[in-house]
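=== Given protein ===
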Amino acid sequence: MRLVAALLTVALFHSATAAERQPRTVIDAEYAFAASAKPLGVRGAFLKFLANDSIICSPAPVNGVASTAAGEPNKDTLEWYPTYSQTAASADLGYTTGPWTYRSADGKGEAHGTFLSVWRKQPDDTWKVVLDCGISHQKFDAPPEKLKSSVASATASAASDAESTVNWKDPVAAAESRFTTAAAGGAAAAFKRFAAADSRLLIRGSQPAVGPAAGEALLAAQKLGSTWQQVFASESLDGTLGYAWGYIGESGAEKPIAVYVNVWRRAKPGAPWQIAAQSLQMLPTKKA
């Protein structure tokens, strides 16, 4: 009996220790993800932290695990850290964004950019990346400030009285449909209309635009199609945070021009949805 009790105690101890080692917040998970890239390599880190059904933009959307597994291991390095993050009050969905730096193993190649990752808590209580769609751009003149670890940030959004009549059951897919309809008449104006005050807009070649006005100006300079087709949308259990992605192109065109991602948030069910972050991935075109 003593042996059984002792073994049970040891098992419980190791179980508790393992549970304590699990990142408890999205921010902790992002830091753990970045730290694992050193001992595991970039490929190994992504395979560890990507959900089985994850999507990454490469630049076209592909399954993250399958795409990563197909790549060959190498000694290239990728360093990153979060500068901004929000998590649903239900603590099952969150997103992170921040700078990244890539260096080739031979020291000849270097690139910089900003990542945008959506995280979902899995049935085993671990956080996994379900969407990763960042951009590349010139190196920041000054490194953005890092987020502190173990800080849980709940969603927050200013809901105006004029728009408070939105149905509390309003799913994020419906908000996405309203946006894509508006974007058909002009993506820049639509972004400004739906964007949160602290929104982030990510477009390759440009550093993130913060705020509706900066986002509107950056989008106005892009050549985008008038058709925005939603492909996927999902939200948190409490209905305060969600994300969607789809394609941008011209009606009747054979192929799309770009892929877009929207991260949505609202202060509470019943408040209007707002775009917290948007990422655009221009797709390569065939040369004539």
